Amino acid sequence: MNAHRIHAVFAATVLLLAGRGLAQGGGLRGPSTVTQGGTMEIEVGTNDPTVEVSTGGPETSSHSVPPGRKVTIPVPPVPGGTILFVTVGRGLRIRVILVEVIAP
Amino acid sequence: MPNQPCIVLSVAASCAAQVLAQVPQTLVVPAAYSTQDAVSSLWIAGGSAEVRQQTLVGASHLGALVGRSLTALELRRSAADETYQGGEAHLAVTVSTSPNAPLACSQAFAGNVGNDAVQVFDGTVTIPTSPPAVGPSVGWTPDNTVRIAFQSPFVYLGGTLCIDVIGQPVAGQAAGWWVADAEFEDLEGTVVEVGDGCGSYGGPHHRWSYVAERSLLPGAFARFWAHGTPNSLGLAAFGCASPPIPLTALGLPSPGCNLFLGSLDALLPAVFEPEVHPLLAGVATAEVRVKIPNDVAVFGTTFTTQWLEWAQLATSNAIQWTVAGSIPTLDMAVIEGHPAEATGEVAVHMAHVLRFEAQ
Q: What is the pTM of this model?
């Protein structure tokens, strides 16, 4: 099991334990689940200019944050059950929320 | 006693003047949002996380406060059909005259603090539970407002005001999603993908480098970053776009990797630093920032950036970027980060709507 997979499993466990309808990381919030092929709305409370979405692996997408601080992001084409890492910032000021992709 | 009415009037006028002098004056910055909700929102330091938030307010906003003592600062909730759950935050607030105008601000917090710094508050503030307020008008009512009553006043003598807030949530009293009103100038540069990268990052097109369009503003710090092998060296190359040049043609053993630069105007090194958050332990990011001069000469300036990751000898996707064609006029800036870090994220196009109280 490679490092990325270990992180995804860990993230899934955290998400399961959290068991909330809305993922909130303080300064960043969005849905805790999204549907394959759909979109997700992420709200940014920090002053960061972009939001990043990844599966914890080597592929990441970046999205510019508009004036209203709500970003509509297409759900990446990943299998159901995949955990998405939505982040703003980096280092000590990074904010992270986890979003699970579910099959329609 | 013919002079008695005059004496009475004189005493009354004197009393009135004293009363007026003691009545606090308020000033909302930017003034356009004295009662109207601005377009954006920004969280509050210490509301739900440890945050250092430094706001620079240009002199153009503060003429009415010159020579007055600032005695309080307030933030108003952003309009939304939603109850904001309140809490408490511990704030340390320092006010000074910054050596930097907002468009010349530093990424380093210390660089924006003036010599006349006064810690005006150190204690706990209440973040009220705020019922839905859909706007466009939102009142400065206690339910809508976070108020910081200064323990020590700061006399404003002109120049750029630096409000430096270090906030920490109070254990068990962290607020929910509570964002304050903020103005945002809708300016951005543009980016265009020039060519794909190679190596093991970035998916099928190996797009593992990025440029923040909204950082491509005169006076801002343009942000360039890439993901790669933890602790390896990255080189961000800046130049003019060109058709692909195979790295093998340059003598590098990297089949399938191309260079998309026809000139090399700058080369900035950065280490791919592992993220410290436990959920992102496999992710490493290299980042460089370039201060864009606050000058009309940079309007529409275009370069192309491409990263080389040393461990793999892999090239990233190449991105052509162009600086926005106007200068932010907000005359405010926000530098935001973690209290333990020396630098923060700079925004010269957005800032809280603030209400000052002065005497």
A: 0.91
